[in-house]
Amino acid sequence: xxxxxxxxxxxxxxxxxxxxxxxxxxxxxxxxxxxxxxxxxxxxxxxxxxxxxxxxxxxxxxxxxxxxxxxxxxxxxxxxxxxxxxxxxxxxxxxxxxxxxxxxxxxxxxxxxxxxxxxxxxxxxxxxxxxxxxxxxxxxxxxxxxxxxxxxxxxxxxxxxxxxxxxxxxxxxxxxxxxxxxxxxxxxxxxxxxxxxxxxxxxxxxxxxxxxxxxxxxxxxxxxxxxxxxxxxxxxxxxxxxxxxxxxxxxxxxxxxxxxxxxxxxxxxxxxxxxxxxxxxxxxxxxxxxxxxxxxxxxxxxxxxxxxxxxxxxxxxxxxxxxxxxxxxxxxxxxxxxxxxxxxxxxxxxxxxxxxxxxxxxxxxxxxxxxxxxxxxxxxxxxxxxxxxxxx
Length: 392
Fold this sequence. Notes:
The protein is α/β, with parallel strands linked by helices. The chain has helices spanning 2-46, 58-61, 84-105, 125-138, 153-156, 164-173, 201-221, 280-290, 350-371, 376-391, and strands at 66-71, 109-113, 146-150, 179-182, 185-189, 241-243, 294-297, 304-308, 312-316, 329-335, 340-346.
């Protein structure tokens, strides 16, 4: 009897060890997959991104170089249209991508080109405060890194939804500075939603601001200041970089190309003025008043390069959210007062992450079937069934 009990105890202990070994293997696989898909993949992908080189090296021209990141359309989900699981997933992705990019690339300034929030145009004061708190957590940054933001139609509404209250609410959180200069480089940040051109009070104020900025830029370009130029500190004599949410007028995305351009079936759809892009008139005014050397915009969620007028390049920056794209990206820019160079940094593909999870689930299933010695049973059953059919 004692021997039987001893044998039973050993068998029970053996089963416990097998189960604990299986459990440890399952935990190890799950942990490894989660670590890779939710953390390491961002480092592996962004590590491959390099800052571009300007044609004339800064140390040869005596000019300083500025490292700038440009991203757009984060669309943080709100309380109305955002399911909690979707919000959790998308915000985690953007947080990991942004924090990893800050750590690996060390930019000096980050520009976000509008549509920070998805429901800012109609959110209540409490919902707005909650959204702002989440934004500040996701896009937290060291003090030496500047974060500059322009307003988009989802932040303050389209022209017919826009109001002084919404604009002031936005500017209370994000510095309303329209003209920003650093290292001899001028940046003009425009509220493109207000460039409707219908003479509304907010539109007139926006145009007046741009005209004032144009005056300051013209004074900085003149070697001998005219009587119209004041004695205040002049701006650097550098053509500005124009930053806004709406792209300048173009007929469509038909001439856009690349992995993150609009889908082929959407590229030939005509753009609506004042909805998909600025009007012809507003675009011509901006190019004439500001004479920018480079324009960066968002809104379309897809990439595009457009040459305007006398050779002014516009870059449409794709959405930074996986909810809008399978392959989000952002722009890395090296700028001097006279030159610039841009490069694109792609983020992890959503399909890659989903495929990794599917493979992991399949591997776990095989592991469990093998442990319980059920893996060969379906094969053996099929073989026996085939033999019976042959003998009939």
